[in-house]
Amino acid sequence: MEKQSKKDVMFDRMKEKKKEVRVVRRIVLIVALVLLVVVAVVGWQAYSYVTDALEPMDPDSEKVIDVEVPIGSNLDSIAALLEENEVIKDARIYKYYVKFQNESEFQAGNYGLTQSMTLEEITESLKTGKVYHEPLYTINVPEGLTLEEIAERVIAEKTDYSAEQFMEQVQDETYIEELMVKYPDLLTEDIKDEDIKFALEGYLFPATYPIYEENPSLTVLIEQMLDATKATIEPYQSVLQEQEKSPHWLLTFASLLEEEATAKSDRQTIASVFYNRMDQDMPLQTDPTVIYAMGEHKDRLFNSDYEFEDPYSTYTNKGLPPGPIAAAGASSIEAVLDPNQTDYLYFLADSEGKNYFSTSYEQHLQYRDEHIGN
């Protein structure tokens, strides 16, 4: 009986241990299942978060966000900057994306980005210095237009603003002061000269501009054009400094070439004529300055017009006018800094736009009689 009792006790203990093992196994299984569920949920959430972070902030957004990437910025600072400006959803995810794509060498500069841009488009923009997304429409500013012509032919026709609203904006003294602070190397005290008709005349670069907003403000449009002028002139800043010349001088000179130029004209040779005349203390005597001075379009000038007294007239004044008389394109700007070397002092163009250059007034008159007539 005693032995049987010991066996029973052992048997009971074995049964209890088996029960404990089953309970432990059940607990382990439950814990494992819970952990798997947790891991799956966390993994799904992480996957969803990463997938969502790789998508545009707002695919339907048209608002342009100005982002300035300073010189010397690294990937960490650029990613943080993009997240801070709400262009991307997560800076860390963007950094992983860039590293996975093996991208590098981003360019400093000012970018007009939107929340509808993909990470690929943003990255391409930062690499090339250009914005890669489709504009809603474009605005074309032809070469050789004055501010008033830009107001009438571009702004009034292509936007919801009137020519009067545009001209009021570009003549607002407070706004001009703000622009001078924003563009200190471009808009200098020269534009405040008392003889200047319009401070921003000649400073709105002629080009085709992509528009990413349905109705951008006038200041956005104006500063987009100023940015283009700044970008065009920046490569020549060192040359201007060596020659002790200013961007205002460059744009003024270039505007004369732009207005004198025809489809077949040689801007570099015309530039040489102007240089030669100034070297000999001769007035430039270019008709477009008289037309600008008079403030009205004329197909032909009469003798009395050449006597019109105004600081812009290069018939009654020697040297360049106080400021630009129109918006000059890149080819005219380049011609000022790289003129042909000639002895020409005169030139004229026939009805087909062909130029005739001469070194003497007698030869000039002969060309006039032959190709222009009375």
Automatic annotation (TrEMBL):
Top class in the EC scheme: lyase
Primary residence: membrane
Sorted alphabetically, the keyword list is: Cell membrane, Cell wall biogenesis/degradation, Lyase, Membrane, Transmembrane, Transmembrane helix
Catalyzed reaction equations: a peptidoglycan chain = a peptidoglycan chain with N-acetyl-1,6-anhydromuramyl-[peptide] at the reducing end + a peptidoglycan chain with N-acetylglucosamine at the non-reducing end
Q: Which InterPro entries match?
A: MLTG-like
Q: How does it sit in the membrane?
A: Single-pass membrane protein
The molecular function terms in GO held by this entry are: lytic endotransglycosylase activity
User: Transmembrane segments in this chain: where?
Assistant: 23-47
Q: Read off the Pfam families from this record.
A: YceG
Q: Where does this protein reside within or beyond the cell?
A: Cell membrane
User: Cellular component terms, GO, for this chain's entry?
Assistant: plasma membrane
Q: Point out the annotated site residues (description: Important for catalytic activity).
A: 260
User: What biological-process terms (Gene Ontology) are attached?
Assistant: cell wall organization; peptidoglycan biosynthetic process
Enzyme Commission number(s) from the entry: 4.2.2.29
Function of the molecule: Functions as a peptidoglycan terminase that cleaves nascent peptidoglycan strands endolytically to terminate their elongation.
Q: Which family does it belong to?
A: Belongs to the transglycosylase MltG family.
Q: What protein is this chain from?
A: Endolytic murein transglycosylase
Gene encoding the protein: mltG
